[in-house]
Amino acid sequence: MKRLLVALAALAAMHDARADVSDAGAPARVNGCVEIIPQGAVRPEVTETLPERGRSGYAATLVVTIRHGKGETVLPSGLSLQSSSEAAEQIKQAGWVFPDQDGSAGARLATKPDPAHADRVTTTLELPLLALPDKPGRHVLTLPPLPIAVARASGQVATVCTHEHRITIDDPTAETPDPQPRPNPPARAQREEWTALKRAMIYGAIGIAAGVLLAWFVSRWLRRPRPAPPPPPPRPPWDVALEKLDEVRHAGLLEVQRFSEYYDRVGDAVRQYFGARYGFDGLECTTDEMLAELRRSALTGVALPEIAEFLQQCDLVKFARMTPSQDDCKMALDEAERIVRTTMVTVRREAGGDRPPEPPAPPPPPPEAPARDEEAT
Q: Which three-class secondary structure state does DSSP give residue 245?
């Protein structure tokens, strides 16, 4: 059961008694305490005990035992006492003080069933009272009657009063010869709420959670799918063709007399150039198919018969197994470069330039050494 507040609902009981005067019997006053029993109600049996002796500054516990009906409640509004009430003033003038009810000396109220009667219960009220006489020495203090309210099931409130009690109060050192001051009691460990640390832990946890969440968002943003960079613009087909022809020139095939391979690579470079420029597979087309594609493409800059003669000569070397000479290979390379450069100039003129650039002059052929037989002659 919850700890109750300070005992004695004196004013509340008297107020309830006046409110129920039409339903109650004649009130009885016991030494200043008004006792009211509603009509038709049975007065609860009250038994109280108080020690005969006590010490000044120490609590003397008043134990009140009340036997009442099962549907009734003792002190329904809790134990309360207003410091300005008449009952509180009487108790204070008599040399008594109620201890702080939030401490260890608060009033206690316990209820248990009565084993002798099934419709009755017993409520025990333990009310500590602090004896504080005005002067030192032995005193006989009188505890005035205390009103106790009992609420009935019908809502009526009955008020019963305890008896007047006398107790002999001695000084705390009355039985100690030559009393000496006692040392202070040992210190007690106290728990204090460390609000600064609490706030720091809360803010730290919030900061860590926010940091983790921010790191997660940043990592997701960094790992987001990104569009692939656009590929570089394709190289012009004539640049590719001239590069391949230059590779053939410096591949060293003539020095090792691999004339057929030299001729094939020159012809493939030209075929691949026309296919890339006009949109067909030049390496897979036959000569007739390529000439047909070039005829439909309105080839300008070079005569179509010249291209046909060049391609047929390449076919003779590639398919008829004709072995060209070194001079034939050089002439084929020069002719291929001329075809590519001539058509390249045509393309630039069609693009709308003011003046098409002049094709670079082909490098002069290396001087040939005279034969030894001719020198001897």
A: helix
Measuring CA to CA, which residue among 310, 321, 323, 326 is closest to residue 269? Answer: 310
Q: Give the closest residue to 76 by CA, choosing from 160, 157, 5, 1.
A: 157
Are 102 and 138 spatial neighbours (Cβ–Cβ below 8 Å)? no
With residues binned 3-state (H G I as helix, E B as strand, rest as coil), the percentages for the chain, rounded to 5, are 35, 20, 45
Task: Please report, to the nearest 10 degrees, the dihedral formed by the alpha carbons of residues 183, 184, 188, 190 taken in order.
Answer: -160
Other C-beta atoms within 10 Å of 147: how many? 24
Q: What single string gives the DSSP state of each residue in 281-301?
A: -TTTS-HHHHHHHHHHTT--S
Contact of 156 with 17, CB cutoff 8 Å:
no
- Render pLDDT for 316-366 as a digit per residue (tens, 0 to 9): 888 888 888 889 899 999 999 999 988 876 555 544 444 444 444 445 555
Residue type, 212: V
The pTM score is 0.42
DSSP state, residue 358: P
In DSSP notation, 64-100 reads EEEEEETT-EESTT-S---TTSHHHHHHHHTTEEPPP
As a CATH number, domain 10-170 is 2.60.40
Domain boundaries, the chain: 10-170, 237-353
DSSP label at 356?
A: P
Read off the pLDDT of residues 3-40 as tens digits, 9 standing for 90 and up.
Answer: 343 333 333 433 343 333 333 455 666 566 778 888 87
DSSP state letter for 162 = P
Count H helices and E strands in the chain, helices first. Answer: 9, 13
